[in-house]
Write a structure and sequence with these properties.
The complex is a heterodimer. In chain A, 73% of the residues lie in helices and 0% in strands. Chain A is mostly helical. Chain A starts with a helix and ends in a 7-residue tail after the last helix. By secondary structure, chain B is mainly alpha-helical. In chain B, helix 9 packs across helix 11, helix 11 runs antiparallel to helix 13 and helix 12 runs antiparallel to helix 13. The longest helix of chain B is centred in the C-terminal third of the chain and has 38 residues. Classes of the chains: A mainly alpha, B mainly alpha. Chains A and B meet through helix 5, helix 6, helix 10 and helix 12 of A and helix 1, helix 6, helix 7, helix 11 and helix 12 of B.
Chain lengths: 299, 335
């Protein structure tokens, strides 16, 4: 008996995946975004193998060398060097690790925190809901970058604190989304049925209701991932995120600011890396939304 | 409508109190002695410490401290900056016009370009214009604006030499501050070239700050138009033989504008976050740069009150957006 149930649920899952891929594939931008994102992940994972130099080694004979195709460039430094003689290409490659790590950590904290808070608010309703949602309103009243900056000022500048700050700022979005979805699902019959069958609150919240609210959460998680990459780079740029000599893209830009009129590559390349990553994730997010949002599906 | 307004206002009170608690609590959870942080002194004698503590009210119970804080707030007393010793509110009011001028220009640019582009993209759905404009919008939406600003400086200021790199007006010009809006003040001063100088200083920061709102507005306008154009009343209007221009201009656009107006209003938070970065890049003397400088100078009274003022401002604008929404969409008022 249990065997057949197992089989059919995995078959359903496969069917859902196939359907999801069918819709996702129709958005060419989304597929392109996915490809770039996978390349980014591979770059981050294999950074030590790919990078020609150590990202923090300073070559004393090679300050501000231009990229290889420009006059004065050297073949060993394909994309040139920065003001203290570090290889740009290696720093950019290692920077991918930072951005992905930041995105994953921020989204994980914000998602888990937001989902639990939203589930509690939506499930119990009443004063619990009112109190929680007012607290979320307070967080949302502050512009996100400003609140993150102030939190970093409290916690002290640095990558870990920047990630915590950004996660705190993003978390209300997940809470609100979960709450709205939970409140919609609570009225459905399958929830009542599970309750009548004797499911406890925790089981109802996490096993019965939550899986049916995942669609919008996945989309929000993708969008938050790209915002996290942007905001952490902004914090790094303002000197409040990852600290030098970390090859984080925003921090690299901050160090390069004084050379903008003399060495275009130290400014252009880190920003381009941020833009490409964020753009790829956003394109993927658009595709995910189209594929997961039943309202937009042409059935 | 009055009831709608009152209910919205009542709803805001707990949020506002929450904001004051955050601003109040912020100083107290900072690592270090809050008395010394707020007084901006170091290595003081125990007597001096007690004196400062009493002067700042830190010797009272926490609840009393909070009530004092609220009381002073209601009287418009937001404390003094540690660096300039001037009242925080005065500094805010002196710098705010610069940010407002920049923000208004940005939102005007974003709306004037974003709405027509969105409408056109929706009408010509699937055309090359639609594809190019929506791809650009996605790029704009993904743009790290601090980098975008640097790129524009490299190209327009460095390479072409068209625009200045920082500030609000060339040092050649001096005139008393009237409205605080450089465009108006420079025009009124009657000095040759002053207005042109103000414009050339404003143009790049406005473009940078407008980038993300522009992308959001264009995308939102397009999807709102597409949704509305599928509605029955638009089909009816078409079926009646109404010219296409009138169907789109009157029936579709007006209804599509409802969510767009909200989107434009909600960009204020984005704008302030953007202003922090934009003002830092262009050394624009507004509240964004003021906050960043205060955070790095550990001028905590300024950070505390600035946080409060900015959040209050965002709340106020959101309220206005809600009210406009109620005005243009009567269905909302009823609920």
């Amino acid at each position: 008996m249990s065997d057949t149930v197992q089989l059919s649920s995995s078959a359903i899952r496969r069917q859902m995946l196939a359907e999801f891929w069918f819709y996702f594939r129709q958005n060419r931008g989304a597929v392109a975004g996915l490809v770039v994102f996978i390349l980014l992940v591979l770059t981050a994972v294999f950074a030590p193998l790919l990078a020609p130099h150590d990202p923090t080694t300073q070559y004393r004979d090679a300050f501000l060398l231009p990229p290889v195709w420009q006059e004065g460039g050297r073949a060993e430094f394909l994309l040139g060097t920065d003001a203290v003689g570090r290889d740009m290409l290696s720093r950019l490659i290692f920077g991918a690790q930072y951005s992905l790590f930041i995105g994953i950590v921020v989204v994980a904290i914000a998602l888990v925190g937001g989902v639990i808070i939203g589930l509690i608010a939506g499930f119990f309703g009443g004063w619990v809901d009112s109190v929680i949602m007012r607290v979320m309103d307070v967080i949302l009243a502050f512009p996100s970058l400003l609140l993150a900056l102030v939190l970093v000022a409290v916690l002290g500048p640095g990558l870990t604190n920047a990630m915590i700050a950004i996660a705190i700022v993003y978390q209300p979005h997940f809470a609100r989304l979960t709450r709205a979805a939970v409140m919609g699902e609570m009225r459905r019959e399958y929830v009542t049925a599970a309750r009548v069958a004797g499911a406890g609150n925790l089981r109802l919240m996490f096993k019965t209701i939550l899986p049916n609210c995942l669609g919008p959460l996945i989309v929000q998680a993708t969008l938050s991932f790209s915002s996290a990459v942007l905001d952490s780079a902004a914090l790094g740029f303002l000197g409040m995120g990852a600290q030098p000599p970390a090859p984080e893209w925003g921090t690299m830009l901050a160090e390069a600011r004084e050379f903008i009129l003399r060495a275009w590559w130290v400014v252009t390349l880190p920003g381009l890396a941020i833009l490409i990553s964020v753009l790829a994730i956003n394109m993927m997010g658009d595709g995910l939304r189209d594929a997961l949002d039943p309202k937009l599906k042409r059935s | 409508m009055v009831r709608f307004l009152l209910s919205k206002l009542l709803y805001l009170i707990p949020t506002f109190l929450g904001i004051t608690i955050v601003a109040f609590g912020f100083v107290r959870i900072l690592p270090g002695d809050p008395v010394l942080l707020m007084a901006g002194e170091r290595g003081v004698s125990p007597e001096r410490h007690a004196e400062l503590s009493a002067q700042l009210g830190f010797d009272k119970p926490l609840v009393m401290q909070y009530l004092d804080f609220l009381g002073r707030l209601l009287q418009g007393d937001l404390g003094n900056s540690l660096v300039t010793k001037r009242p925080v509110l005065d500094e805010f009011l002196a710098l705010f016009p610069a940010t407002l001028e920049l923000g208004l220009c940005a939102i005007i640019i974003a709306t004037l370009i974003g709405v027509p582009v969105g409408v056109l993209a929706a009408i010509k759905r699937g055309s090359w214009f639609d594809q190019v404009s929506m791809t650009s919008a996605l790029v704009g939406f993904s743009m790290p604006i601090f980098w975008w600003g640097l790129l524009l400086i490299i190209f327009f200021s460095g390479y072409l030499g068209w625009t200045p790199v920082s500030g609000r007006i060339s040092l050649m010009y001096y005139f008393p501050e009237g409205t605080g809006f450089m465009l108006i003040d420079s025009l009124m001063s009657g000095q040759d070239g002053a207005f042109a100088s103000a414009v050339s200083h404003l143009i790049l920061p406005s473009i940078v700050l407008a980038t993300i709102p522009l992308a959001v507005i264009a995308r939102q306008t397009r999807s709102a138009m597409l949704e509305v154009m599928g509605e029955d009343y638009v089909r009816t209007a078409r079926a009646k033989g109404m010219p296409s221009r009138r169907v789109i201009g009157v029936h579709a656009l007006r209804n599509a504008m409802i969510p767009v107006v909200t989107t434009i209003g909600l960009q204020i938070g984005v704008l302030i976050a953007g202003a922090i970065l934009t003002e830092t890049i262009f050394s624009w003397p507004g509240i964004g740069k003021w906050m960043i400088d205060s955070i790095s100078r550990r001028d905590y009274p300024v950070v505390q009150s600035g946080l409060l003022l900015i959040a209050g401002l965002v709340m106020l604008v959101n309220l206005l957006v809600d009210l406009t929404y109620g005005l243009i969409n009567p269905r909302i008022r009823a609920t």
